[in-house]
Fold this sequence. Notes:
Rossmann fold, Tumour Suppressor Smad4, 2 domains, 6-stranded antiparallel beta sheet, binds adenosine-5'-triphosphate, YegS/DAGK_C, DAGKc domain-containing protein
Amino acid sequence: MTKILFVINPISGDIDKEDLMEDLKAFGRQHDLTVDIFKTTGEEDEKKLKEMLASYKPEIACAVGGDGTVSLTAKSIINSEVALAIIPMGSGNGLSKDLGIPQNIDEALQLLVDHQKMAIDTLDVNGHLSIHICDMGFNALVVKRFCGGETRGPGAYAWIAMQEFMAYEPKKYTIKTDGKTIFDGEAFMITVTNARAFGSNAAINPTGVINDGEFEICILEPFPKSSSLGILYRLYTDTIDDSVYTHRFSCSSASIINHAEEVSQIDGEPEDLGKTISFRAQPQNLHVLLPPQAV
Ligand SMILES: Nc1ncnc2c1ncn2[C@@H]1O[C@H](COP(=O)(O)OP(=O)(O)OP(=O)(O)O)[C@@H](O)[C@H]1O
């Protein structure tokens, strides 16, 4: 009998999950799965989850929540044979969308019994794990305000982004890889990722491959406000490389000097990364469950 631990965030995406817990147990009974539940509290979740994983020893750890819950679950099983499954119930659900995991709950649940397992790359960022997107600048500021706010859900995120956009001042960054300086100047935001798109589906790294041993650094340089709609259009049509304000570089390690110590975020959570940030690809060290037909 396959053993599954559901890691449930009761507040993610502003969605009530009381009934869902009964549904998950019923799904387990129906499919002959051994099921247990770990409910996050927002306090020492990583430590408590690791303890539960060590004693329960599941084959699958299934995150039920948003990107923060997925990240918490991934941190707890990284470099092990335990596979990550995702029932997307957050505001953005970035990694699950990039992996082609159904956003419909029943279909995502079905992957627990009908799936393929794949090892994906992750990123080490100054000793922190990133499984989806790390960035500095505008988006990280929005993430920080969102996480500190009372309201969740995609609407709240978009509202904060609109409020912050008009007054945002680009900051200075220096980026080095393979001993060479590849960028030294101001940027609206710098995104470092293996993946293709944010949870909003904005494709910042349209040709990103999640298991090729490399990651991309995507630079969005300062742009006139009158160009913002054009950049948004490019983000949603996989044509961001055509913008004169963007550059992308592929590498397996890099360092970024964040001169102003501008706010940073990893996988949807604000993170204080200091002035010098080192990035290193960690090839195929996280197992994930994907739809059977995915490549
Ligand atoms: N029981 C809880 N009460 C309050 N906060 C919690 C609780 N459990 C987890 N959290 C907090 O929830 C945040 C993670 O939320 P998560 O990312 O899963 O959902 P989201 O923010 O709504 O969606 P997304 O990340 O996709 O935008 C973390 O900051 C974590 O500390």
